[in-house]
Design goal:
heterotrimer; A mainly alpha (284); B mainly alpha (316); C alpha/beta (548); B: 316 residues; mainly alpha; MetI-like fold; flat; C: 548 residues; alpha/beta; Rossmann fold; six-stranded mixed beta sheet; 21 helices; 36% helix
Chain lengths: 284, 316, 548
């Protein structure tokens, strides 16, 4: 049994239990968050400076992750790339989930025509494949960071809406909502005070999942050259820049790919292995 | 008892139709009401004002947007997809060959991934919490969490760079022999299969496990039924509609995957055509490609809904 | 002769969230002879179902048989391999589940599932199995015994499914059958038929039965011996007669006492012809889209009229689907009535709660059956009780705290509970909080919709006592909706019997008035009595009273 390891003491101290997989994934997510936060202060070289005579250089002391297709330091570019990948995705996921969840709960409570119109419109929006939507917007207005954030959030509003509406509809059938309704409570109280506290857990897990989707989509768009534009580069753009190094397995193309993979896999594993509150009545 | 099935299917089809209308509306306006005058773009900056005015009239550009939308839809129904801005060729001509290529790629992927994924998903559910189940689950989470181009990159690294089995980034047209065909399609299909199967495995596994937790499966266990019997006789028939849903939803991931895969492998399909059209801002081409994609997507989810209705015993 | 079933020192453990194992069955010993019926009785969580399932060598996921032996027909189910157990399930020991509706696979025909046991264990050719099944359908007095097997489970009623589940258990000629609360989900009139069918079939085949139930009266009809369980331990085992007439254990006495609820303890209702508190005239309500005639598609309540005088209680009784809950929802304004008048406290009420004034909403409160869903699980008891105080009476801070304490006192709950969440309370405590919330509004009338139905007998009796006490102190009126006659008789001055959306009769219990309408007679006579001969003597009477 795992209860007797060091994790057991953590459980006893906090009242929460987390398994080793969860612990590792938390660490990776925190690591990337810190890298993104302090990026400009920890890059060993300037991101634009060509310091290696060779391009697609291998890993070696001083150039720990090798050099890119122009001979720039890959480590510095990766660190600064974290800022774009994590920052843009975070901004987008918050906008998307806030809008989606508020709309979703409102639809569930008001039901009737409001629900029908909003659901139908967002369903239609949802039936445009996400990459396609990104392509169309970029084709139309060009790509800039605010446009990217807004586009990514619009793409994921329907998903967040559907998810939270489904949860809220379930809660809405509960008698305590009926009690509040016939007490005479109004919409803002119903959604903020009666429904939200009951769905906040799954909603946060969904936020994490949607964050992964957004990172994936942003990287995909950047990979196609439609996301973050030079001179800036997120991880997807780094892979695109250095795709020429693929036939000889240059670190410049592998490292950013791995960076994306570690971030998204960790978030996914974290959601599946969230710390669980110990509800052990006989233990207390 | 009168069956409700026909009316339910009809209402699904109607919903799909309404959605398609809203989507085409969105596609049209997103791409049409943008800065820049179409006639000027078409004729170039050097064109005379008269020529531009003439073209505007010919293209109904002076008329209200709503009317142009109607013309556009009417055109779509007659197979007139407009003319490409970039090379002044009818869009239909540009698309036709490319669409066939993409469908070939998608079809091959479906043929490979659906049986593979369902087998893995159902068996993982059957032997839940075994090592086999864990390996399948972790692998699928890994693949789902990673962008398609990373899967493609890794596939190239493994199969082309290290193992040297397959060509890396070039699509060869020499598909005269079976081996040639295999080599030409192998990398794109392998990549897409990974991307699509992971979703399908995850969802079909979840669907079977959910039905395994029902009281009627417990009842069958208490009748002395064996584990394979529980899964195949009792769980699976009831998991059919969520599985159909999983298949359709996963196949819709094909659409996204295809955009990346066609680009990375330089495959002459419709998605590559569209990505190129985006860089030249070739609006009629983008609109048509987008409509094809949305139509494909809607077709898949509507099909999943209908299968779900048909496989629900309560509606029989 | 050895016993068919011998249980010795049986313990079962369940795992907790933190992975610890705790004992939920604490050493059970029991013998069952061939052809004998033993009832396991106890409240929810007493371990009665867990104990019964060990006879199949089965423990639900998260539980395990941790000690002792369960010998069935000479073989120890606790120590056999999974494969050996599977071979005995359905042939030696069979199981009839509580909810047959959930235990039938919706995707297969009934016949396929009934004869599945014979397929699994290769007992006989399918044709013979089908013939046997049809014979069982006859024996269990199912309608259309030849055709019912071709239907799907959702096409058959609950009472019929329960009997079909028994057929499914009996097809393999088992020596022991476990009935797990098989009639709990059924209406009383249906329950009578199902019980009678079970009794006839098992007696004829000399099958040993384990009958799990919380209902002493039902058990009295069908069992030879009773084992009383509480918190996973046996309190008392004895013959039906011993348990009913000479109970030794305090808990058994408590159970028996709760069966005869106290009808007294209430001050006489004020007489005279003061204006009624609530008066309803020809009220109709229903569900579905409005039809051309202005009525909804399905009318669940049709032209019901009733009166509630100040300080008196009205009971509404009927079986599931009779419209009694719809009537409550129409009065509360949750489901606006489509026709009729509601006069409350001298004023006309709007049909929809949304249009009623805050005072009207406050004066008429409703308490729902399931406290689990009626209390927001994310809020503390303090917040749950405090909100109506703030909302209706503008109380905040200290004043509000003091009032919350007073409310907890009124419903006899410790004040320390105010910081807990509903999930940390027992079922009876939750129902008290649920009721206290209605009291917080300081209403004139409280609609109680089946508020004791989800509770154990002993707990329910305490709630009824509390309701009476509060009525004496606060001068409230109740409308009490229930399917349980004894509960209604204990607290109501006037009883309305509902059937198919209409009121068929009004009965005043204090006047010792007997039901006149055939349906009321059927309903009243179908309520099981503690007398073990009740079911056997009922037969002819019930048939005579049956209405179309």
């Amino acid at each position: 049994m795992k209860t007797h390891s060091s994790i057991g003491t953590f459980a006893a101290w906090s009242g929460y239990r987390i398994n080793p997989v969860g612990l590792v994934s938390v660490s990776v997510v925190l690591f990337w968050a810190l890298v993104a936060l302090f990026a400009p202060h920890i890059t060993p070289h300037s991101v634009g400076e060509m310091i290696d005579a060779d391009y697609f250089g291998p890993m070696r002391p001083g150039l720990w992750l090798g050099s890119d297709y122009l001979g720039r330091d890959m480590l510095s570019r990766l660190i600064l790339g974290a800022r774009y990948t994590v920052g843009i995705s975070l901004a987008a996921v918050f906008i998307a989930c806030f809008t989606g969840v508020v709309l979703g709960m409102t639809s569930a409570v008001l039901r009737g025509p409001v629900d029908m119109v909003v659901s139908r419109l967002l369903d239609a929006l949802n039936s445009i494949p996400s990459k396609l939507f990104g392509l169309m917007v970029v084709a139309a207005v060009g790509s800039s960071i605010p446009v990217l954030i807004l586009t990514l959030s619009i793409i994921y509003v329907p998903g967040a809406y559907r998810f939270s509406r489904a949860l809220a509809v379930n809660i809405d059938t509960m008698d305590f909502i009926m009690v509040a309704r016939i007490r005479g409570e109004k919409l803002p109280y119903l959604i903020a005070s009666e429904i939200l506290p009951n769905i906040i857990g799954p909603v946060l897990a969904d936020l994490g999942l949607r964050f992964v989707f957004i990172v994936l989509l942003l990287s995909g768009l950047s990979f196609l050259g439609l996301g973050v534009q030079p001179p800036y580069a997120d991880w997807g753009a780094l892979v695109r820049e250095n795709i020429g190094g693929l036939p000889f397995a240059a670190p410049a193309v592998i490292v950013p790919s791995l960076a994306i993979a570690t971030l998204t896999i960790s978030v996914n594993l974290l959601i599946d292995n969230l710390p669980q509150k110990i509800r052990d009545r006989s233990a207390s | 008892m009168k069956s409700r099935v026909p009316s339910l299917i009809l209402s699904r089809l109607l919903i799909a139709l309404v959605t398609l209308t809203i989507v085409s509306f969105a596609v049209f306006f997103a791409t049409t009401l943008l800065p820049g005058d179409t006639a000027t773009i078409l004729l170039g900056q050097a064109a005379t004002p008269e020529a531009i005015a003439g073209l505007r009239t010919a293209m109904h550009l002076d008329e209200p947007a709503l009317l142009r939308f109607v013309y556009w839809i009417a055109g779509l129904f007659q197979g007139d997809l407009g003319t490409s801005y970039a090379n002044h060729v009818p869009v239909a001509t540009l698309i036709s060959g490319r669409l066939a290529n993409t469908l070939k790629l998608a079809g091959l992927t479906t043929l490979v991934s659906v049986p593979l994924a369902l087998t893995l998903g159902i068996t993982a559910a059957m032997w839940r919490r075994t090592l086999y189940d864990r390996i399948v689950t972790v692998a699928t989470i890994g693949i789902i969490s990673v962008p398609e181009f990373v899967v493609a990159t890794l596939a190239v690294l493994v199969f082309a760079v290290y193992l040297k089995w397959l060509p890396a980034l070039s699509f060869t047209y020499q598909v005269d022999s079976f081996a040639g065909l295999l080599r030409a399609y192998a990398m794109p299909v392998v990549t897409l299969t990974f991307v699509v199967s992971a979703q399908m495995i995850r969802m079909s596994r979840a669907a079977v496990i959910e039905t395994l937790n029902t009281p009627y499966v417990e009842m069958a266990l208490l009748k002395g039924a064996s584990r394979p019997r529980l899964v195949l006789r009792h769980a699976l028939p009831n998991a059919l509609s969520p599985i159909a849903n999983a298949v359709a939803l996963s196949l819709s991931y094909l659409l996204g995957g295809v955009i990346i895969v066609e680009t990375i492998f330089n495959y002459p399909g419709i998605a590559k055509l569209m990505v190129d059209a985006v860089s030249t801002r070739d609006l009629p081409l983008i609109q048509s490609c987008a409509m094809i994609f949305c139509f494909g997507y809607l077709l898949l989810i509507t099909a999943a809904d209908i299968v779900a209705i048909l496989s629900n015993p309560r509606l029989r | 002769m050895t016993n068919l079933v011998e249980i010795r020192g049986l313990t079962v453990e369940a795992t907790t969230d933190s992975g610890r194992w705790i004992q939920i069955l604490k050493g059970i010993d029991l013998d069952i002879a061939a052809g004998e019926t033993v009832a396991f009785i106890g409240e929810s969580g007493s371990g009665k179902t867990t104990a019964a399932m060990t006879l199949l060598g089965y423990a639900r996921p998260g539980c395990r048989i941790s000690g002792g032996t369960v010998r069935v027909d000479g073989r120890d189910m606790a120590s056999l391999s999974e494969k050996e157990r599977a071979a005995l399930r359905g042939t030696t020991v069979a199981y009839v589940p509580q909810s047959a509706a959930a235990a039938f696979n919706p995707a297969a025909t009934i016949m396929d599932q009934v004869i599945e046991v014979t397929r699994i264990h290769r007992l006989m050719p399918p044709d013979e199995a089908r013939r046997r099944a049809v014979a069982l359908f006859h024996a269990l007095s199912l309608p259309d015994p030849d055709g019912i097997g071709d239907r799907y489970p959702h096409q058959v009623s609950g009472g019929q499914l329960q009997r079909l589940a028994a057929a499914m258990a009996l097809i393999g000629d088992p020596k022991v059958v476990i009935f797990d609360e098989p009639t709990t989900a059924l209406d009383v009139t249906t329950q009578v038929e199902v019980l009678r069918a079970f009794k006839a079939v098992t007696a004829k085949r000399r099958i040993a039965c384990v009958y799990v139930s919380h209902d002493l009266a039902v058990v009295a009809q069908i069992a030879d011996r009773i084992m009383v369980l509480r918190n996973g331990a046996v309190q008392e085992t004895g013959s039906v007669d011993d348990i009913l007439t000479r109970p030794t254990h305090p808990y058994t006495k408590e159970l028996l006492h709760a069966f005869h609820p106290d009808t007294g303890g209430r001050s006489a209702p004020p007489v005279g012809d003061a204006a009624p508190l609530l008066e309803i005239k020809t009220l109709s309500a229903g569900y579905g889209p409005p039809q051309p005639n202005g009525q909804p598609l399905v009318l669940a309540v049709q032209g019901v009229s009733l009166q509630v005088k100040r300080g008196t209680n009205l009971g509404i009784i009927g079986e599931s689907g009779c419209g009694k809950s719809t009537l409550a929802r129409a009065i509360a304004g949750i489901l606006p009535a489509c026709k009729g008048d509601i006069q409350f406290d001298g004023r006309e009420l709007w049909h929809s709660a949304g249009q009623r004034s805050r005072e009207q909403l406050r004066d008429l409160q409703i308490v729902f059956q399931h406290a689990d869903t009626a209390l927001n699980p994310a809020k503390s008891i303090e917040d749950i009780l405090g909100r109506p105080l703030t909302f209706y009476h503008g109380l905040r801070g200290k004043a509000r705290d003091a009032r919350v304490d007073a409310l907890l006192d009124m419903v006899h709950l410790p004040r320390a509970l105010r910081h807990r969440r509903p999930a940390e309370l027992s079922g009876g405590q939750k129902q008290r909080v649920n009721f206290a919330r209605a009291l917080a509004a300081e209403p004139k009338l409280i609609l109680c919709d089946e508020i004791t139905s989800a509770l154990d007998t002993v707990v329910a009796a305490a709630i009824i006592d509390l309701l009476k006490e509060l009525q004496r102190e606060l001068g409230l009126s109740y409308i009490f909706i229930s399917h349980d006659l004894s509960v209604i008789e204990a607290i109501c001055d006037e009883i309305i019997v509902m059937y198919r959306g209409q009121t068929v009769e009004t009965i005043i219990p204090s006047a010792r008035q007997q039901p006149q309408h055939p349906y009321s007679q059927l309903l009243f006579s179908s309520v099981p009595k503690l007398d073990p001969t009740w079911l056997d003597t009922l037969n002819s009477d019930a048939d005579r009273m049956r209405v179309a």
